[in-house]
Amino acid sequence: MKTAIVTDSTAYIPKELREQFDIHMISLNVVMGGESYREEVDLHAEDFFQEVKKENKLPTTSQPAIGDFVDLFEKLSTNYDAVISIHLSSGISGTYQGAVTAGEMVEGIEVYAFDSEISCMAQGFYVLEAAKMAKQGELPTVIIDRLNEMKKTLRAYFMVDDLVHLQRGGRLSGAQAFIGSLLQVKPLLYFQDKVIVPFEKIRTRKKAMKRIEDLLAEDAQSGSEYQACIIHANREAEANEWRNELKEKYPNVEFMIGYFGAVIGTHLGEGAMGLTWVKK
After folding, report:
1. Domain of 118: which CATH number?
2. What is the pLDDT of residues 250-265, one digit of tens each?
3. Which of 128, 150, 172 corresponds to the end of one domain?
4. I want to staple 202 with a disulfide (CB 3.0 to 4.6 A). Which of 148, 164, 208, 242 is the partner?
5. What does the H/E/C string look like for the chain?
């Protein structure tokens, strides 16, 4: 059985990796300055953070149209028997449900939609694992079982410089955002039950990043091998510096650098920093 792997743009998997593993991408949209852009196609992260500084109004985002999914699945049906479609958390976007609905509308190919319950490279870890298994000819059900197994060890924590973006985008309650702004805290955030919630309130950026490292250390001290990714919103130099520090301390963890692109960056704001890891 030949299985195609589909994900959305918020996994932020670099184009060269998508091409290497035959990963098909469907874009979410960013509306900025009265124009709609397809993320990772018309608008890339580095350009987004430059352009958003020129705008008086925060951008908005939207999920792919169901028709976009239908078109992609129908196209894939000519060469594949099945599709595994892996998407950002259904608690913050309707993208996953769009894939489910489109899958029911398309004939000639079996569609397995998978809710990552998260986003960015944490979502990307699922996609890359699925793509490697698909290349080896594994059955879709076997791949889905593996992704569900990964959920048990996948962790992701992130911090933002300013809670205003999350508050306005409705991804964090107004009361929580107000308290954060008032106290000048740098809350650690994470996904719980598919939505973004505070994990701990921490006073400074430096202490927040140290706390994330401590959480990694709790898992890494087992000696098991882990894959990890530092994710940044236009803070590449800081991300590289952090990676170099962590690489020395945790030789059993393989680190890569990822980024918050336009859609997730709209809700987190520039300066956000996160770390995700999963047991190999």
Report:
1. 3.40.50.10170
2. 999 999 999 999 999 9
3. 150
4. 208
5. CCEEEEEEHHHCCCHHHHHHCCEEEECCEEEECCEEEEECCCECHHHHHHHHCCCCCCCEEECCCHHHHHHHHHHHCCCCCEEEEEECCCCCCCHHHHHHHHHHHCCCCEEEEEECCCCHHHHHHHHHHHHHHHHCCCCHHHHHHHHHHHCCCCEEEEECCCCHHHHHCCCCCHHHHHHHHHHCCCCEEEEECCEEEEEECCCCHHHHHHHHHHHHHHHHCCCCCEEEEEEECCCHHHHHHHHHHHHHHCCCEEEEEEECCHHHHHHHCCCCEEEEEEEC
The pLDDT > 70 percentage for the chain reads 92
Q: Which two tokens stand for residue 193?
A: 């039950």
pLDDT per position as a tens digit, 189-201: 999 999 988 888 8
Sole residue written with tokens 């990964």: 150
